[in-house]
Amino acid sequence: FLVRDTRRAIQEAAKKHCFVCSKTGATITCWEMGCDRSFHLPCTPQGECVTQFFGLYRSFCWEHRPQQAVQPHPRQNNTCSICLDTVEDKASYKTMVCPACQDARFHRHCIQRLALHAGICFHCPCCQNRELFVMEMLTMGIRMSKRLRPSWESEPAVGPSDQRHSRCDASTCLCPGGRKHTEEEGPWKLLLCGSCAAEGTHQHCSSLESSTSSWECEGC
Question: From the UniProt record, which GO molecular function terms apply (predicted)?
Answer without folding.
Answer: zinc ion binding
